[in-house]
Amino acid sequence: MCPFELIHLSMTSKRMKRVVTIISKPKIENKFEIDAYINEDYGVSIKNGQMTWDYRFVALKYRDGWNESENSEQLRKYTKNKLEGFKTVCDCIQDAFGLQFNNFIFSMEVDHNQNRSTVDYLKIRQESYTQFELRSVSENDEDIKYLLDNLKFSNYLYIKSDIKKDFEMDIPENVDSLNIVFADFVKLEQLLRLNCGCIKLWHTNLTKRDINVFLKSWTASGSNLNLVYCKIGFAFQRTDGILDDIPHEVGNERRFQNKYIDQVVQNGWDIKRNDGKTARIHFRSERAYNSMDIIIY
Question: Which residues form the Sdz-33 F-box domain (predicted)?
Fold first, then answer.
């Protein structure tokens, strides 16, 4: 039986759910992965090798249906309440199959009034999320804060939302990789508290002095000790002053390979931490946008 059939069978009664759990869990657990998404459609993707079963809920009746290709099957179910349908299927998959969400995509601009109830559900269903992508076009600052305060993340957190520059909220400090596209709300103090291996902050309001303080703190082993790679985008054009009072020397062309990047850096500046670790500082200049890469080796 395919995952769709097992899901439908387990939803017929509590007894059948127990039967499906007993029969299927040993075969599916640790062999399948489950991704979930909440955007225009609400759904889950169950993956086993090259094969994917996509079960989604749609708001338009004409989209109801099923289709398949060589490596995928997609089931679309029309419903007036996508969230409730989504929750029912997720409960079934996690309880009967013993699967945890691997990658979760949450677009908050959809069904704005359900944002917090969705967060409450996600908090109950899973203790921590391995990979989580949060997107929002509209201003959902308070809802985003609520999500970050209530959910835990381990490997990867991606945030793309136009958050107000003066909005204050805590950022998860111990996620392995953090990527914030519009990071102009991030303060220096928050950056210094991060224990991430990889930090990407695009479009920040950080000043030259802020970045200088950040680098000095790193060289003194005062913060960001787990850092392996960091990218900071900034609005100012000139980079002079960023390395003031920080011993540095010209870095030669070098290929950097780690779990976060694989790239050749032709130039830049090398600075050292007081324990002997070295960081390559490389500035990039693009149209009306500049950034700095920090690669620790």
Answer: 170-232
* Site of tokens 């967060």: 119
For 192-230, how does the pLDDT look when each residue is reduced to its tens digit (9 = 90+)?
999 999 999 999 999 999 999 999 999 999 999 999 999
State residue 268's pLDDT score: 96
**pLDDT reported for residue 1:** 74
Query: Per residue in 49-75, pLDDT tens?
Result: 899 999 999 999 999 999 999 999 999
* pLDDT, tens only, 141-164: 999 999 999 999 999 999 999 999
Which structure tokens are listed for 172? 């998860």
